[in-house]
Amino acid sequence: MSDAVGSFPQYEVFADEFLDHAQNGFYNAHYDRPACLELLGDVAGQHVLDAACGPGLYAEELVGRGARVTGFDLSPRMVELSRERVPEGEFRVQDLAEPLTWLPDASVDRVLFALALEYVDDRVGALREFRRVLRPDGALVLSRQHPTGDWLRHGGNYFDVRVIEEVWSRGWKVRYWLAPLERTCEELREAGFLIEQLSEGRPSDAAAAVDPERHAKLAQEPLGFLTVRAIPDPRVS
């Protein structure tokens, strides 16, 4: 197997199905989105870059909270869905392997990078671009699959950084990186960030009414996502 994920827009194949799944799905609506929004804090009047924006579900929440949102995704269909859902936002097709040349230095207040780190080969390069476009007092909020949950599912050496292929429940074929938590922390440091807060993820209280059994399980075990809020390191030029 190749040691790269590449730039094929994997979610393009099932973009509309994913929107249907993620809009009210337990993991997205009651686990990851609430966690990311909490760490982003008050975004009223803020310019937020929604990196790998998907079908615009996070952007919709952010605009509703008073943010100005600029977003991008590798999947053209995801960008279309975002534009339809959030006409107030600005969305474009963009590969995270390429520089964000259309964004000036220090031009955004927040960067949201939800559940997409695993699909990027040069993660440090992408994170450095986020640091470049962030204002000095800005913050990056990223979420990723919990590495312990990954290891419990896939086995092998927890500390090996490797690409795996998987077929999800709806038949979606995905290819992404597995990496331990220490690697994500190191990549943030290399990119010029300091970790301000790390949350290992719990489903929202409201999720108990949606799926009590799943809520109870995820409230006790690291099987879902984790979320990080990082700030630009002022010691790095």
Please provide a written account of the structure.
The structure is a single chain. The protein is α/β, with parallel strands linked by helices and 237 residues long. The protein contains 9 helices and 9 strands. The protein has helices spanning 15-24, 26-40, 57-64, 76-85, 123-133, 147-154, 181-190, 207-210, 212-218, and strands at residues 47-51, 68-73, 90-93, 108-114, 134-145, 162-167, 173-178, 193-199, 225-232. The strands form 2 sheets. Strands 3-2-1-4-5-9-8 form a 7-stranded mixed β-sheet, with helices on both faces. The protein has a two-stranded antiparallel ribbon with strand order 6-7. Helix 4 links the parallel strand 2 (68-73) and strand 3 (90-93). Helix 1 packs across helix 2.
Features:
two-stranded antiparallel ribbon, seven-stranded mixed β-sheet, 237 residues, 9 strands, Rossmann fold, alpha/beta
Concise overview:
This protein has helices spanning 15-24, 26-40, 57-64, 76-85, 123-133, 147-154, 181-190, 207-210, 212-218; strands spanning 47-51, 68-73, 90-93, 108-114, 134-145, 162-167, 173-178, 193-199, 225-232. The protein is of the alpha/beta class and 237 residues long. The chain has a single domain (10-232), classed as Vaccinia Virus protein VP39 (Rossmann fold), CATH 3.40.50.150.
